Amino acid sequence: MHEPHTDGRGKPQPLGFRPNLFVMSLIVIAVMTAFVFSGLLFTGDRCDLMGCGDNWTYLGPHAFFMDASIHSGDFPLWNPLILCGKPFAANPQAAAFYPPNLIRSLAVVRPEPIDTHISLIVMTLLHLLMGAAATLALARRHGLSHAASLAAAAVFLLNANVVGRFLLHWNIVCMAAWLPVILLLVRHAVTAQSIRAALGPMALAGIAFGFSALIGFVQITFYMGVAVAGYAVLCGWLMGRGPTEERGPRRMVAGLGVAAAVGAVAVAVSAAMWLPAAELARLNVRANDARASYELEPELGHPPLDTAEYLVAYPGAEHLMSLHGPGTVAVLLAVAGLVYGRRREALAFGLL
Q1: pLDDT digits (tens, 9 = 90+) for 179-202
Q2: Angle at the Cα of 267 (from 265 to 271), degrees rounded to 5?
Q3: What is the dihedral of CA 10, 16, 17, 23, to 10 degrees?
Q4: What's the rounded Cα separation, in Å, for the pair 132 and 137?
Q5: H or E element that contains 6
Q6: Closest CA to 330 of 148, 182, 176
Q7: Phi, psi of 8 (to 5 degrees)
């Protein structure tokens, strides 16, 4: 186990943590974000801010109805404007109970469609910055250099999937931004020196996971749960706790216990959304009639050569709903991470 670094006063600090470099890295991340999205943020055409796809036709109208309702003094439990009236807050993708979305809605000075969409863009950007900062910190916790950690944050922030969905699915992007935060807290919990020391990180990870679930994209919640459980078990096996860094089934069980505790807190935090959503789901036609469902082309159903091409080159807008490629640079960075000197730490980070 690596000895903790100390500051000038002898106070222990996390492995390799340098506040000045960390702040400089955050500034670089903010500059990269402004550069990549400059065409949107500083455009003279306000219509571009209205988004496309689901943001334009579904998620945006939901957010606008929520803004208009809250500013009129009502919490939007029911939407009387479509289908002769239907539940609103019980629809998970309305994100009516998601705290940042509630703050965004309250912050909209005048509830008009353009202002709602601008507020969604601001909220999404703040989530991306949060996710990039957490990725940077997580990479440092795994012993990667500042340069490698900054590259990891850049890949998270500016990969094709995030950029491609920025104006398409604000909910998916915001949920993805919570994952590195949760994993960072899980890492702290699994490697804590005692159960008491692990309680705080576990509770915070559960709250963060619950917040992400309140955004309401159920599939992403499931994938994140699998990632959190797998990462906790992996950390328990590879890193363990204590000066001997012992590994084995005992540490894997400890990691699984951390994941279970995080999941229990997340379920409690997101209960305000899950309970009415479960009741609404029983009335859904697709839930009671298999013939009403539809099939999507499996994203991993491409021939091997096509899949390899997607992994090294972004396929472009015409393949927006297919498997996005991270690009050659990201693949090379991932390979470099796997052959890094601290193989155990790099392996755990690389498997994410």
Answers
A1: 999 999 999 998 888 888 889 999
A2: 120
A3: 140
A4: 9
A5: strand 5-6
A6: 148
A7: -65, -20
pTM: 0.78
Give whole-number Cα distances, 63 to 9, 45, 170, 347, in Å.
49, 21, 11, 40
Give the Cα separation of 171 and 179 in Å (integer).
Answer: 13
Query: In whole angstroms, what is the distance from residue 304 CA to residue 100 CA?
Result: 41
d(CA 171, CA 165): 9
Q: What is the largest CA-CA distance in the chain?
A: 68
Q: Amino acid identity of 266?
A: A
**Phi and psi angles of residue 174, each rounded to the nearest 5 degrees, phi first:** -65, -35
Phi-psi region of 4 (alpha: psi -120 to 50; beta: other; left: phi over 0): beta
Crossing angle of helices 60-71 and 113-141, rounded to 10°: 110
3-state SS of 70-93 is: HHCCCCCCEECCCCCCEECCCCHH
| Other Cβ atoms within 10 Å of 339 Cβ, number | 9
Residue in this structure with the two tokens 């939007």, named with its chain if needed: 76
C-alpha gyration radius of the chain: 22
Note the pLDDT tens digit of each residue in 154-182: 888 887 778 878 888 899 999 999 999 99
Across the chain, how many H-helices and E-strands are there?
17, 4
List beta partners, residue 13.
5
Phi and psi angles of residue 12, each rounded to the nearest 5 degrees, phi first:
-60, 140
pLDDT (0 to 100) of residue 330: 56
